[in-house]
Structure formats: structure tokens, C-alpha cells
Design brief:
This protein is an all-alpha fold and 421 residues long. The chain has a domain at 73-289 and 311-365 and 373-394: Na+/H+ antiporter like fold (Up-down Bundle). 77% of the residues lie in helices and 0% in strands. The chain has 19 helices and no strands. α16 runs antiparallel to α18. The relative contact order is 0.15.
């Protein structure tokens, strides 16, 4: 099905009209991402993998239908990533960060510090410059909440102690990752790498989120009570998205990343009575724009550059560091009585968050196509290996618990039927 659509899109794209070319590209993106996303899910993998592969096939390396550098596609891609971070914020309960306690916080900070430091040092040791090394380290930081949550849910492990630790740590990872993204973006765009400038960028990002949550928490409820009275279909969801766009714009004006503002908007609206309807509306609109972001990222991959010896070497290093750093982070809280290896494995996938870092580095000129491909390879491999590895570890855990008659459940409180305190 994809090939006939690609042929039609290529023919339409040959027309002189820029609108016809855009329609052809969007047609190919919609069909390609949905079909390959469905195929990925049928093989037990996240849909994002299929969307990325669709982008690679439609990009300049293969069919040449979608060009990530196209201004309109790039703008729609940015809207997609803003909506994606808004959705992540909507799903993030600030109180959950407190409930999981010190274990999740320790895993999160260790899972950021070790991959970032090792990735940065490894990239510099391989001869990369200071800024590309920063982008490499940053891309290794955050865990994909969406991928981890989906796999744990399918394994019926969200309510175990390990599941709660993973979700809590992944959320903290994302918050830390957003701040790191703002810092690295400022440096890549020409800022100084001094301690003062890093503290200023991080301070702006952190202060913006705090102010947005505090002030927005007071302003949003009455605004959305009024919006709820608007009878026009979908009005509440559109007001919520406009609110996310507004905070993203404010974040940009404040000198921070737009996705910081979008994420903060999601945090603000998380506890509203209307949050359920807002999530549904955002998801519906995001189903169009978010795949454009992933397809655009895939289209930016230069397969020839990726196949170079240097790119494969850097990619291999990033994969090794990316897997080892997260797995070891699960062992850092030595007092934790649960399955540390399972926690570490569940923290491995980088997914959409790693792609955001890679896209930022490429768009700002901080990395070239070869290094972008190496980071892309790391994201794909870490995302691809996690579901089967986590499934095997979960099966081992179940066999161990069954053999011991549930003793570990009583000691560690890890029964899948027992909610963590």
C-alpha cells in the first residue's frame, strides 16, 4: 500500500504548485506513518518505530518525497513536538514524583548523570568537538515515558513497586532533560559554556516552569470554566491548545525552549476537572501533527552518512553507554529491595525524547548529518531492544517469585496485585 501512495505522491510532488507538493508530502506521511506504525505494533514494538522508518523511506535517502528542510514541513513538525510535550505534561502528576520517594529520584539522577557524562567524554575521546559532544550526552539523558509506560502496562506491572519507580524516575528524567535541553540549546546557538551562562539558562528554564505552574494554576481554572460554557464543538480542547501555544511562545520570549512552555502548560492543566476532555482533544489533533514530527526526523537521516565508519563507531559507543548508564542507574539505590535489573532495563528506551535532542542539534547546526544518524541509531536500538528485554526479565521475575512461594512479595512489596505505598 505504501509504494503506490509513494508513487502518486512523487508524481504530485513534481507539479510546480507548492501546495500540491505539500499535499503530496502530507499524504505520504499520513499513510506511511499509520501503516508502518501499525506494523510495528503488530510485532510488539512502539508505533514510533514505524513512524521513524516511514520518514527514512520517504526522505531524501530513499524516495525523496519528504524534505525535513522544507519550511512548511519544519513548522508543522515543530507544532507536533509542542503538542507532544503538552501531552506528556498533561499525563504528569507532580504529586506522583513525591509518592515514589527517594528511590525514583535516585534512579532518575543517576540515569541522567552517568549516560550524560560517559556520552560526553566518549564523544570527545572519539575526536568530536565540545558542542557535538554536549548534544551526544544530552541525547542520552531522558527516558521515554510513553514507551516505558506502554510496555509495563502490557506486562501488567504498572502497579508493582518496580513499575511505580520506573514511571516516577522517567518523569523526573524528562523534567531534568527539558532543563538540559534548554541549556544545550542555548550553548549550541552561540551561548557561552561558562558555569554562569549554564546556571542562567537552567535558572530561566526552571523559574519559567515554576512560575507557569504557580500563576497558571490560579489563572487556568476560571478561564476553563468560562471556556466550558462555549457551546461550539471542540472549543474546550482548542482553548487548551491555544494555552499551550501561548506558554510555548512566552518560553521563547524568556529565552528558553518552546517545549518547556508546552510541558508547563500540560502540568498546569493536569488537575483541572476538564483535563479528560482536554487530553482527548489534544490526542486527536496530535494524531495528525505528532507523526509529522517523527517522519520529519526520519526524513532527516542520511543513510549514506550513517553507513560511514565514523557514524557507526560513534553510534556503537552511544548505544553501549546509553544501555549501560540506565541499567546501572537501577542499582544505585542500594537500599531498594525490588528487582533492580528490571528497573534499569525499563529505563533504557530514549524514544521521542532522544529524537527531540537530536533534531535540536541538527536544526541549530550543532551536529552534522553523520552524527545525527549516529544518535538516531542509538534511539532506534535502545527503543527496539527494551520491550523484548523487559518481557524476558519480567518472566524471570515471575518464575523466581513462584519458586519462592511469593516470599519476595512479602519482603519487598512487589506483588503485581499489591499497590506500592
Amino acid at each position: 500500500m505504501i509504494l503506490p501512495v509513494a508513487v502518486l505522491a512523487a508524481g504530485a510532488g513534481a507539479a510546480e504548485s507548492p501546495v500540491a507538493h505539500l499535499l503530496a508530502a502530507l499524504m505520504a506521511i499520513i499513510v506511511g506513518t499509520k501503516v508502518l506504525g501499525e506494523i510495528a505494533q503488530r510485532f510488539g514494538q512502539p508505533a514510533v518505530l514505524g513512524e521513524l522508518v516511514a520518514g527514512v523511506l520517504l526522505g531524501g535517502s530513499v524516495l525523496g518525497i519528504v524534505h525535513a528542510s522544507d519550511a512548511v514541513i519544519a513548522a508543522m513538525s515543530q507544532i507536533g513536538v509542542i503538542l507532544l510535550l503538552f501531552e506528556i505534561g498533561l499525563e504528569t502528576d507532580v504529586r506522583s514524583l513525591v509518592k515514589v520517594g527517594g528511590v525514583a529520584t535516585t534512579v532518575a539522577f543517576a540515569g541522567v548523570a552517568m549516560p550524560f557524562g560517559a556520552g560526553f567524554l566518549g564523544a570527545e575521546w572519539l575526536g568530536l568537538g565540545h558542542v557535538p559532544a554536549l548534544v551526544c550526552g544530552a541525547a542520552l539523558c531522558a527516558t521515554s515515558v510513553g514507551i516505558s509506560a506502554r510496555v509495563l502496562s502490557e506486562l501488567d506491572m504498572l502497579e508493582t513497586t518496580e513499575g511505580r519507580v520506573v514511571l516516577g524516575a522517567a518523569v523526573i528524567d524528562d523534567v531534568i532533560g527539558l532543563v538540559i535541553l534548554a541549556v544545550v540549546a542555548g550553548i549550541v546557538e552561540g551561548g557561552s559554556a561558562s558555569v554562569t551562562s549554564i546556571a542562567r539558562i537552567a535558572g530561566v528554564a526552571g523559574a519559567f516552569v515554576v512560575l507557569a505552574v504557580v500563576v497558571g494554576g490560579r489563572v487556568a481554572p476560571p478561564v476553563f470554566r468560562v471556556a466550558e460554557r462555549i457551546r461550539a464543538s471542540g472549543a474546550l480542547g482548542l482553548v487548551a491548545i491555544a494555552f499551550a501555544f501561548f506558554l510555548a511562545w512566552l518560553a521563547h520570549l524568556a529565552g528558553s525552549a518552546m517545549i518547556i512552555g508546552a510541558f508547563a502548560a500540560g502540568l498546569v492543566l493536569h488537575d483541572l476537572p476538564q483535563a479528560g476532555e482536554v487530553r482527548e482533544s489534544t490526542t486527536r489533533i496530535g494524531q495528525f501533527f505528532v507523526p509529522i514530527f517523527f517522519a520529519s526526523v526520519g526524513a532527516a537521516v542520511n543513510l549514506r552518512a550513517l553507513m560511514s565508519a565514523d557514524a557507526l563507531l560513534v553510534g556503537g559507543m552511544l548505544i553501549a553507554v546509553g544501555v549501560a548508564g540506565k541499567v546501572l542507574a537501577g542499582y544505585v539505590p542500594w537500599w531498594f529491595r525490588g528487582d533492580k535489573l528490571l528497573v534499569g532495563v525499563a529505563m533504557v528506551p530514549r524514544g521521542e525524547v532522544g529524537l527531540i535532542f537530536a533534531q535540536m542539534g541538527l536544526a541549530t547546526g550543532g551536529i552534522d548529518a553523520g552524527l545525527f544518524g549516529a544518535i538516531m541509531l542509538m534511539v532506534l536500538v535502545t527503543t527496539f531492544i527494551t520491550p523484548p528485554a523487559l518481557g524476558r526479565r519480567a518472566a524471570t521475575r515471575e518464575r523466581r517469585l513462584a519458586a519462592k512461594g511469593g516470599l519476595d512479595d512479602l519482603v519487598a512489596g512487589t506483588s503485581r496485585h499489591t499497590k506500592a505505598r
